[in-house]
Amino acid sequence: MFKRELKVNLKNFIIWTGILLILFAAVFLMYPSLISSGQMDELDDMMEMFPPELLKSFNMDISGISTPFGWIKTEGFVFVLLITGVYSSILGSNILLKEESDKTIEYLNCVPVTRKQIVADKVLVSVIYIVAMVLILGVFNCVLLSGDDDFDKKQFWLLSITPIFSSLTLFSISLLISTFTHKTKKVFGVSLGLVFVSYFLNTISELSDKVEFLKYLSAFSLADIRNVITDRRINPVMILVTAVLFTIFTVIAVIHYDRKELV
Amino acid sequence: MENEIIIDIRNLTKYYGDILGVKDLSLQLKRGEIFGFIGPNGAGKSTTIRAVMNLINKTEGQILIDGKEFLRDDTEIKRIIGYLPSEVNLYDDLTVKGMLDYHESFYRKFDSVEKTAKKDIHARRKELVEVLQLDENKKIEDLSLGNLKKVGIILALMHQPELLILDEPTSGLDPIMQNVFYDLLLEEKKRGTTIFYSTHILSEVSKICDRVGIIRKGKLIKVEDVDSLSDKSLTFVTVKSDQADEIAAELGLKIISKEDKVVKFANNISDDELIKKIAKYRIDKILIEEATLEDMFLHYYTEED
């Protein structure tokens, strides 16, 4: 079952990872010409004219965009977070529910395997693909950025693995939601909404101290990019919170799926 | 020691919200028998089977397999069951071979704990593929309804289960394949397999079943040996007489049809008693027909509560 799950989900994994790699390859190809034209410094100067709150939401207050590594730390990671988040959320909402929408669950239910085993195999495959996506992108970017003057390898790798925290949390929430319905379309919309609302709350929370509490409602705050950039370390609390949330949501999903009517 | 009763359904009740699926259904299947579970569409056959297979939650009741309550994660019990749903849905991306290989993989771990010397699952699979004339290289998504059903049959039989649960198994099979399938079931019966056979095709029941349970509006209304059911004294009596209404009133039997001077009713009193009772009336014509098995079922289906 585990091998089959790996195979079934491979195609989507390749497509989503491909999108990320193409996006980053395109930006890196563009950068040398932008830098040589001397426009980047002007751009950095121009950025200073923007309100600090806006710059903060793209981390531009703590990093410039005049180098590819600078771009990764600012806009680049917004894309990584969003794309890995969307992929994880779709995976979470689909991986169990697909058996029901395709009605293959009637078959899977009658073979000698427990429902817990079904969920465990599917979760394990999802975690492998989510982590693999983040790592493959990390290696790809590392190779392309290694010639960059301001490239800080340690900071880069710490930064690169942070999407794992937000993505695993989004995956487990979507997985849990999927155990409450039989319709893929319904949970698909909710999961995508979850990603964008989560991102929105995270962005808003950085704009003012008054609404800072909103970050506690956002999975993206677990990625904690700002602190990774400034402190060059991952806050262990974020790892712990991710582990706790992932475990809680997955365990509730297992318990609920165990009692679910499957047809 | 093996239990004589392999399936013991105790007071099964299932409601879908306010809608009744089955009500207080109790049923026992004896080891080695073919039990026909018959009823019209929507009577509760599939609900009962889905409750047995733990696909749906029971509102009330208990289901024991081989003397042990069948809980949804009991893989030891799942291992001895072969299940064929009414609608076979399999993985479209796989070929027939891939699907059968996948199925085999779930049973491999039990090989070492087999108590009796059983034929290798793979060898049985080969036999079934040959008997049912299936092309293993075809993709599941390209299969016709009949061929998909054949794959479903192989999946239900290849691990040589002790209990087969079949929900309308012949739908989609051509008449030749239906006969091949009946032969396979009789072969399974010889092997000692118990078969729970849900259908609405009456002729199948008389052909292969030992006992039959009739379900109607979610309630089990009759469980009987197929032989004794056909021997029952139900007859259909058609009388042509100017006094047809009076005859019908005197007998107080269930009228099947009534047209002008001709009345047809279902009769369960003996021919001798019947003739004595209606002898005082003037009768133009009388026809007494023996009820077929099919008539018997229709009689139960249409009977008022």
List the helices and strands and how they pair.
The complex is a heterodimer of chains A (263) and B (305).
Chain A: H1 2-36, H2 39-47, H3 52-57, H4 68-94, H5 97-101, H6 105-110, H7 115-145, H8 153-161, H9 163-178, H10 184-205, H11 225-231, H12 236-259
Helix pairs in contact in A: 1-4, 1-7, 4-7, 4-9, 4-10, 7-8, 7-9, 7-12, 9-10, 9-12
Chain B: E1 5-16, E2 19-30, E3 34-38, H1 45-52, E4 60-65, E5 68-69, H2 75-79, E6 81-84, H3 96-107, H4 121-131, H5 145-157, E7 163-167, H6 175-191, E8 194-199, H7 202-208, E9 211-216, E10 219-225, H8 226-231, E11 235-240, H9 244-251, E12 254-259, E13 262-267, H10 271-278, E14 285-290, H11 293-302
Parallel strand pairs in B: 3-8, 3-9, 6-7, 7-8
Antiparallel strand pairs in B: 1-2, 1-4, 4-5, 9-10, 11-13, 11-14, 12-13
Helix pairs in contact in B: 4-5
**Outline type of chain A:** elongated
Q: Decide which structural class fits the backbone of chain B.
A: alpha/beta
CATH architecture of the largest domain in chain B: 3-Layer(aba) Sandwich
The structural domain count of chain B equals 2
Task: Label the structural class of chain A.
Answer: mainly alpha
Most extensive protein-chain contact, per-chain counts:
A-B, 22 and 28 residues
Written as H for each helix and E for each strand, in order along the chain, the element string of chain A is: HHHHHHHHHHHH
Radius of gyration of chain A: 20 Å
Helical amount of chain A: over 70%
Quaternary state, please? Answer: heterodimer
Distance between the termini of chain A: 21 Å
Q: State the CATH topology of the largest domain in chain B.
A: Rossmann fold
Radius of gyration of chain B: 23 Å
